[in-house]
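To the team - nicotinamide-adenine-dinucleotide complex, inputs and output below.
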Amino acid sequence: MAGILDGKISVITGAGSGIGRATAKIFAREGASLVLADIIEEGGQETLQMVKELGAAAIFVKTDVSKAQEVDALVAKVVETYGQLDCAFNNAGIGGKSVLTHECSEEDWNRVLAVNLTGVWLCMKAEITQMLKQGKGAIVNTSSIMGLTGAIRVPAYTAAKHGVAGITKAAALEYARHGIRINAVCPAPIYTPLLVKAFEKRPDIEERYVRSEPMKRIGQPEEVGEAVAWLCSDRASYMTGLPMPVDGGYMAQ
Ligand code: NAD
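Output:
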């Protein structure tokens, strides 16, 4: 049976771990050809092996999404290898320090904004430039429920993720007439190394997260990946400009 992403040339950032890796495997299952990007070579190579075992054509390009030159080189490599770019999942991100707003250092603020917001914008800039030449394309950015509502002790992360939701809407309007759809996923807490690291520092958070979730559980990375695959596919042809919660009902409360 044909996959929903059959023949789609797709780039995924932050593909070496967590949500990016799970999504890469779902894209492979759904027939996409992949360009995997991550700042960490080892994780990226591991995911590359996994998607190849699933039968996908794929390459890995070591990329720091906060560096314009590296992002431009990534998209150039996609086009050089496959001739086009159909789908992009701009997902690379980092957590910030657990601090109140007045305690956040300029260094932490700049680092989180550089990866989580500027990184997404730089990727969109290069991807949209290519997609305009083709007259089509689909982009999904990773925001967060913290891009839709406030949360304490994560000022830079919350600001960056609201920024991702904002640029997703703005760009969706700009390119809707050019055949380019742009959406975002806004996950609630998802079991990935990013979250496990946070739980190690603050064990009380895990229980608090579970209690605050309508389904009384934390999400799995595959549950985000399935939403991303659908949003990137032609089945979501009338969807654009949506920061979509993937949150077990959290935002409905
Ligand atoms: P993760 O740490 O498992 O994976 C993130 C990946 O991004 C890693 O492989 C890391 O090497 C890569 N990365 C970090 N900085 C990079 C850079 N500058 N350039 C390229 N790659 C870089 O985390 P995850 O939970 O899978 O997070 C993926 C995305 O989902 C992030 O944007 C995160 O903010 C978002 N998110 C996560 C959760 C959660 O609870 N896990 C919830 C909402 C949103």
